[in-house]
Amino acid sequence: MSRRFHPSTVGPETWEGYIFSDLEIRIKESTDLYGAVLWPSAMVLCHFLEANRDEYNLADRNVIELGAGTGLVTIVASLLGAKVTSTDLPDVLGNLQYNVARNTKGRCKYIPLVTELIWGQEVSQRFPCATHCFDYILAADVVYAHPYLSELMDTFDYLCQDNTQILWAMRFRLDPENSFVERFQQRFHLEELYNLPSLSIRLYRAWRKDKRSRNQREAAA
Length: 221
Prior knowledge:
Elements: E1 5-10, E2 13-20, E3 23-28, H1 40-51, E4 62-66, H2 72-79, E5 83-88, H3 93-104, E6 113-116, H4 123-126, E7 136-140, H5 149-159, E8 165-171, H6 175-187, E9 188-196, E10 201-208, H7 214-220
Parallel strand pairs: 4-5, 4-7, 5-6, 7-8
Antiparallel strand pairs: 1-2, 2-3, 8-10, 9-10
Helix pairs in contact: 1-2, 2-3
């Protein structure tokens, strides 16, 4: 990757620096929370978004990020002109909001929205189809050996409309990743965009197979 990350210390605060389009992004991590650590899959997805900004033009697009973590992907998508809804668990939101606000204020056309999302729980109530339509779903390292893979699958399924594209980077560690991909392919078309064997990371583009409307999916939820 041509991007460069450099750990630094400013007073008592440790942060990771990332250079994007000549802008420095400072990411604060929290080692106490698994979701508040910057994982390599997020860097891979950010590099892809920057390198392919013409083909995957996020300007003025409605974008949602699942499992936003430290907020790096949300920040980069916002700098590329997207209207981003950045989501994660309640205990991660404080650090996520801090990073997003710190790195997008005065830099972006649209102010990113940081909000809670627990996969599978009241997704249709939080994002009703009458008012929420996403062009892209972004996700990095959301699949690993946690007990909520079924809920994650259902969340992808609900949020992904007929014209929605999913850009999803994941690191393969154990069998749950492989089995999730197999089940994912039952509902979605899947195209591999990157394969980085040295990092065990793959980047996918996905879109739904059936043409069932979101209204039908919401009614069935």
